[in-house]
Amino acid sequence: MRVNNSFPLLALATVLFLFTSCSSSTLFRSPYTNQQQTYHVMPALSDEQTTASYLSGSVTSGASNEFLRDDFQLFQGKWHIAGKLGRNLQGYVGLHGSAGAYDISETAFDLYDYDPVTGMPREFKGPTGTKFMGSLGSTAGLAIVLPLGDRVEWRVLGVESSYGHEFGDYYKIRRSLPDSAILLADRRNTHITLGGFTEWIFKSSNPDKRIGVQLAMGSSLHRLRNEEKVYNNLTPFYLHNTFHFTVRRTTGYIRISAGDYYAAFQSGVSFRL
């Protein structure tokens, strides 16, 4: 008797359709694990003023979620004090606050889930549209600095940390989403990050002008988990590439950021008090 080789494949497909649910492609993470640590200006070793305080403001525009389908805009205000702590050691501490809008896409909830008994698709309609978000917190950092001649300083190795307390509609939505309907959601409203950076400062013949570039990498200290789909977990990380330029007391900077399901562009300005 001839056996139809397509029958086992057809049976397997039927079993997978009826008894295996494919999760949605929706992931809701907080932008603050990537953006609450903005760029901090510090005096150069060659500056006469070894300690200074700064007021800063920045605007961030980015995208998040799978396929970067959700957009967000974020404004942050910050105060920090920075200075020389030793012959080749610098540091800073600061406070920050932010407010912005997170736009949940109309296609954010792509649920491909089937009832194992009836085989009928089950739908989940979550909230969409623009949601308010805000945060308050603090930052701190240390850096080992080496002069490379008269015109260049290298912050060889820096350590940076941040703490933020999030509030607003977007946080409340993340808390309310069921694990059965999404891949992952960050349900915490406290965000702690730890990272490192290296930075080069290039000084011109005019002591009031300089430019620089900083490369930073870090991670949240909290791991996201799905209690129903235990194989879904994530520790968000960030990568920052910052270009900055200083004229007298004012520093402007632009930053390109990337991470898990995340991309953003940030521009800001700091004024030395």
Number of domains: 1
What summary fits the major beta sheet? 10 strands, antiparallel, barrel
Structural class: mainly beta
Q: What are the low-pLDDT stretches, counting only 5+ consecutive residues below 50?
A: 6-24
Q: Which oligomerization state do the chains in this entry correspond to?
A: single chain
Spatial sequence of strands, sheet with the most strands = 2-3-4-7-8-10-11-14-15-16
Number of helices: 3
- Going by CATH, the homologous superfamily would be OPCA outer membrane adhesin/invasin
Which whole number gives the mean pLDDT? 86
Annotation, overall tally of beta strands: 16
**From N to C, what is the helix and strand string?**
HEHEEEEEEEHEEEEEEEE
**CATH architecture field:** Beta Barrel
| CATH-defined topology | Lipocalin
Helix content bin = under 10%
What is the overall shape?
elongated
Cα-to-Cα separation, first versus last residue = 90 Å
What is the CATH class?
A: Mainly Beta
Radius of gyration: 24 Å
Residue fraction in strands: over 45%
Write the layout of secondary structure elements.
Blueprint: H1 6-19, E1 27-28, H2 32-35, E2 51-64, E3 70-86, E4 89-104, E5 113-114, E6 121-122, E7 129-148, E8 152-167, H3 169-176, E9 184-185, E10 190-203, E11 209-220, E12 224-225, E13 233-234, E14 237-247, E15 250-259, E16 262-272
Structural features, described:
A hairpin with a 6-residue loop joins strand 5 and strand 6 (121-122). The chain starts with 5 loop residues before the first helix and ends with a strand. It is mainly β and 273 residues long. The radius of gyration is 24 Å and the shape is elongated. The longest helix is centred in the first third of the chain and has 14 residues, at 6-19. A ten-stranded antiparallel barrel has the order 2-3-4-7-8-10-11-14-15-16. Strands 1-9 form a two-stranded parallel ribbon. It has a single domain (30-109, 126-272), classed as Lipocalin (Beta Barrel), CATH 2.40.128.100. Residues 6-24 have low confidence and may be disordered. It has helices at residues 6-19, 32-35, 169-176, and strands at 27-28, 51-64, 70-86, 89-104, 113-114, 121-122, 129-148, 152-167, 184-185, 190-203, 209-220, 224-225, 233-234, 237-247, 250-259, 262-272.
